[in-house]
Amino acid sequence: MNLPPLALYVHIPWCLKKCPYCDFNSHAFAGELPHRNYTQRLLADLDADLGYVQGRHLEAIFIGGGTPSLFSPDSIGTLLEGIGARIPFAEDIEITLEANPGTFEVEKFRGFHHAGINRLSIGIQSFDPAFLLSLGRVHDGTEARQAAGQVRDAGFDNFNLDLMFGLPGQDTEQALADLETALSFKPPHLSWYQLTIEPNTVFYSRPPALPEDDLIAQMQEEGIALLGSNGLERYEVSAYAARDRQSRHNLNYWQFGDYLGIGAGAHGKITQPGAGGVIRTRKVRQPAAYLDPDKPPGAESVAVPPAELPLEFMMNALRLTEGVDAALFESRTGLSPDVLEPVLAKLRARGLVQQDRLSTTGTGFSFLNDVLAEFMPEADQPHGAIPVIFRP
Question: Which CATH superfamily is domain 6-252 in?
Answer without folding.
Answer: Aldolase class I (3.20.20.70)
